Amino acid sequence: MSTPAVDRSLLIEGLGKGLRVIEAFSDNHPRLTSSEAGELAGLTRTAARRYLVSLVHFGYADTDGKYYWLMPSILRLGRSYLEAARVPRLVQPFLQRLSIQTGETANLSVLDGPDVVYLSRSNSPRIVSIGFQPGARVPAHVVSAGYAILSSYAPEQLDSWIEAREFARFTPHTITDAKTLRESVAAARSLGYWRIEQFIDAGLAGIAVALTDRKGRCAGAISITYQMQVYPADTALTKLLPALQEVATVLRAVI
User: Fold this and answer.
1) 8-73 belongs to which CATH class?
2) Most CB within 10 Å of its CB: which of 13, 55, 104, 237?
3) pLDDT digits 0-9 by tens, 103-142
């Protein structure tokens, strides 16, 4: 859904800048100087330092005087969403039922920019389960949920999304060119589901269906990540897909 226009005179620009400083930290940049944070956030070194010092003061970051890094308390910001959001709470019992029924880990995820973000998870009854934990961000082009969600996009939306991205290769099977990705999304739209194999890791596959609400709007995707050796050939389509589709149909009436 598109975000409605906002009167810019009502915006607190400083809040937006502070959020950009937080987002500057990543796997590639776990520790930043004020100059580095400023460059990544599009701010001057002096401005970035003020935001970093403020984060330290409020307990969201720490510093050794030169470098800054985020503290675990920053997770409270994401936890607030998970605890307040309606859809993850509604979906969780259905994920649990799906996991028990299939014996595999089930997930709820949404698309956020270039990434699929996992919001809820129900572990498989196995000692070792695979898949993504809540809060994990994964490039959309390497997981089945990404294709399922993108299949709900209008053509112009999909074109804009693709044109703004660069698609990294994780395995020899990863789709990295726009033409093939568009064709895959179109196929997912036609089939009503999508399956990927070894796009992100050897031996792993995933299958997903889009989750729509009562008005037909896409609210995310439910998916299962599984080991290919457990479901060879098209076994996943007969043993996992029907259960996914059944849950998506039931949820459509309550979301």
Assistant:
1) mainly alpha
2) 104
3) 999 999 999 999 999 999 998 776 566 778 888 899 999 9
* Contact between 174 and 141 (Cβ < 8 Å): yes
The C-alpha atoms of residue 243 and residue 31 are separated, in whole angstroms, by 44
| pTM reported for the whole predicted model | 0.81
219 closest CA partner among 246, 248, 196, 199: 248
* Structure tokens that stand for 245 in this block: 């589709």
137-139 and 194-197 beta bridge pairing: unpaired
| 38 in Cβ contact with 48 (< 8 Å) | yes
- 8 Å CB contact between 198 and 205: yes
Phi, psi of 174 (to 5 degrees): -65, 135
Query: Which residues lie closer than 8 Å to 182 by C-beta, 6 or more apart?
Result: 158, 162
Listed residue (231, 234, 228, 222) closest to 87, CA to CA: 222
Q: How far apart are CA 225 and CA 144, in angstroms?
A: 9
CATH superfamily of 85-252: GAF domain (3.30.450.40)
pLDDT by residue (tens digit) across 20-69? Answer: 999 999 989 999 999 999 999 999 999 999 999 999 999 999 999 999 99
Residue 117: CA atoms inside 13 Å, Cβ hemisphere, count?
12
Per domain, the residue ranges of the chain are: 8-73, 85-252
Question: How many whole angstroms separate alpha carbon 251 and alpha carbon 255?
Answer: 6
